[in-house]
Inverse folding.
């Protein structure tokens, strides 16, 4: 039980981790992340890496949708831009990996700002639909700009090399994906301690009031699009190194819906929500595989049911969370924490 | 002269598919007008309708003229259940949440259809003759002509219903001002239910027509996205917009597909959408209510 945490300075109040238990748990979590790859087999390591890539993209979308209130169904298309940038740089220029990842973020951010321009004119659902349109147009570009994107067959990416080490196994890739994702999440958490992040929140809560308070809407909305797309681009770049092939079908509209679903399930407008949501939505369909394997002795050709069942569960999770737990898993976590704050005494 | 004839044939085919777009767009408009919800699952209801028709006509061997109303009723029933079960509890939530609920619903429907009928594309039992029709010199597929006529009849019926029937007037009143409609004794929740039921029924019927032309598959719900473009361009709460927008988009898609290549259809459609959003966000015939900043 914690009885109040007296903060004597503004700095202490604005810190990311405010209480000793939080710091202890965070240290345990980080240590677990460092030990994790030594304990898991290739399949689980694959899932963990994929989940971390999604965490980066979902955190970016959370900045845009959860914190700035601009709904986007184009996040996966920006991931595709990042992935293609990395693939193109690796194929044609052979620049170092970190440069490629940064470039992927930069190019995606530029495209994101361009796509964000309609957000000045429309918002809410109309903006969501505009981003759907933008992702279809980007898909068209990927298919038809053959010299750069390789057309419908896409580009295969050579394995990344980092100071002479070829990153071919999931184990090695983990050590690249982990720090990059951790940096992005840390950056997002810190963003909302600055003027820019607070301006985003002001825009979300009431854009007219924000404008009156001296926040130029044009600049901040585009900035939010830029940052979100940067995150998507870097995650897409990691995705390209992870799967080693990029095609126009790698990032369908469903992937954008997946990311939006991840932050809804996790909890919009909280950093924790983006992380939990992305992990949950990546792992939950895989858990179905075990369920299907378990019932396979009794159900004929249960294997063919897996893919449709995943689709059903995916949709049901979106609907279920929106109807029963609109604040997402982050709210459940907060409730549990509130409970233990007074434990063993009740209010 | 053959070029001109060819253009005429392409245009007629475009108008035919445009009529189906209009019909699907009508489902969007009905639901949006009454409940202010953009139902992205319309495309999936459409797919469900075509599969229900398939099940009744091919699976159970019913006559086509019995299967068609049953499929429409199935779609309508789905709409009613969804409205009571999912949309009613979400009243007052942000439009985005409700929108995402319909997105999730679409995913559930796709999964269920794949579970029951599998993922392979199928063709519906033929119920419209294959012999082409000649309008003057121009060749038109009979299926497309039938689809056009049915869609036109349904659209006309709804235009009249909205103008003269009590229920239609009640729906327009609800769309204009819910509180005022309530105080005039209009059963607003009833209007919500009716709009979803009828809207989803229309979508299911459009699905049967679409399936008769192009076959059915679990991914045919993508057609709903084209219809969404129609309602955005035409105005979300305007039946006239759905009609004109659908015919126009059908023509444009047909021309783009013929003269630029099939792969340009999508990009032209969505390019049009972005231009429409930039220039007239409320659509050609929609109510001017979009907040601009």
């Amino acid at each position: 039980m914690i009885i109040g945490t007296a903060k004597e300075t503004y700095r202490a109040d604005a810190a990311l981790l405010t209480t000793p238990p939080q710091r202890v748990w965070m240290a345990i979590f980080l240590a677990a992340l460092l030990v994790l790859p030594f304990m898991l087999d290739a399949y689980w390591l694959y899932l963990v890496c994929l989940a971390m890539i999604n965490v980066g993209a979902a955190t970016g979308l959370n900045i845009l949708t959860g914190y700035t209130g601009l709904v986007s169904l184009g996040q996966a298309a920006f991931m595709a831009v990042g992935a293609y940038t990395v693939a193109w740089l690796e194929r044609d220029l052979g620049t170092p990996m970190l440069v490629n990842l940064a470039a992927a973020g930069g190019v995606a951010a530029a495209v994101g700002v361009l796509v964000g321009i309609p957000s000045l004119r429309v918002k809410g659902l109309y903006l969501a639909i505009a981003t759907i349109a933008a992702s279809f147009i980007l898909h068209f570009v990927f298919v038809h700009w053959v010299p750069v994107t390789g057309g419908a067959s896409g580009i295969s990416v050579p394995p990344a090399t980092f100071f002479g080490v070829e990153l071919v196994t999931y184990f090695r890739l983990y050590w690249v994906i982990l720090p990059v994702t951790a940096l992005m999440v840390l950056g997002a958490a810190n963003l909302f301690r600055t003027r820019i992040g607070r301006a985003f929140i002001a825009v979300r809560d009431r854009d007219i009031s924000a404008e009156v308070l001296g926040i130029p809407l044009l600049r901040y909305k585009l900035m939010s699009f830029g940052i979100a797309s940067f995150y998507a681009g870097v995650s897409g770049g990691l995705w390209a190194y992870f799967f080693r092939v990029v095609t126009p079908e790698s990032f369908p509209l469903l992937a954008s819906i997946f990311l939006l679903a991840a932050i809804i399930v996790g909890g919009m407008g909280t950093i924790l929500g983006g992380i939990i949501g992305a992990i949950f939505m990546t792992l939950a369909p895989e858990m179905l595989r075990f369920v299907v394997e378990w019932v396979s002795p009794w159900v004929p050709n249960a294997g063919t049911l897996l893919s449709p069942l995943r689709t059903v569960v995916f949709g049901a999770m979106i609907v279920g969370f929106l109807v029963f737990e609109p604040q997402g898993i982050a709210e459940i976590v907060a409730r549990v924490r509130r409970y233990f704050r007074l434990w063993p005494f009740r209010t | 002269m053959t070029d001109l004839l060819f253009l005429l044939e392409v245009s007629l085919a475009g108008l035919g598919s445009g009529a189906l777009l209009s019909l699907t767009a009508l489902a969007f408009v009905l639901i949006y007008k009454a409940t202010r919800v953009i139902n992205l699952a319309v495309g999936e209801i459409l797919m469900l309708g075509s599969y229900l028709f398939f099940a009744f006509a091919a699976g159970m061997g019913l006559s086509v003229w019995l299967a068609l109303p049953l499929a429409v009723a199935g779609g309508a029933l789905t709409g009613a259940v969804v409205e009571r079960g999912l949309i009613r509890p979400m009243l007052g939530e942000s439009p985005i949440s409700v929108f995402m609920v319909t997105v999730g619903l679409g995913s559930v429907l796709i999964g269920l259809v794949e579970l029951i009928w599998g993922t392979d594309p199928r063709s519906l039992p033929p119920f419209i003759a294959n012999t082409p029709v000649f309008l003057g010199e121009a060749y038109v597929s009979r299926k497309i002509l039938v689809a056009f006529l049915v869609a036109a009849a349904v659209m006309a019926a709804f235009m009249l219903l909205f103008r003269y029937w009590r229920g239609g007037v009640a729906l327009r009143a609800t769309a204009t001002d819910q509180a005022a409609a309530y105080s005039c004794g209009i059963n607003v929740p009833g209007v919500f239910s009716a709009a979803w039921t009828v809207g989803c029924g229309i979508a299911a019927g459009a699905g049967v027509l679409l399936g008769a032309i192009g076959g059915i598959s679990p991914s045919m719900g993508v057609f709903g996205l084209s219809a969404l473009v129609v309602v955005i361009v035409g105005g979300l709460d305007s039946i006239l917009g759905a009609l004109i927008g659908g015919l126009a988009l059908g023509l444009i898609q047909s021309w783009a597909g013929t003269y630029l290549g099939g792969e340009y259809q999508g990009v032209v459609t969505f390019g049009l959408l972005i231009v429409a959003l930039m220039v007239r966000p409320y659509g050609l015939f929609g109510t001017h209510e979009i907040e601009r900043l």
In short: The radius of gyration of chain B is 19 Å. The longest strand of chain B covers residues 133-135. Chain B has eleven helices and two strands.
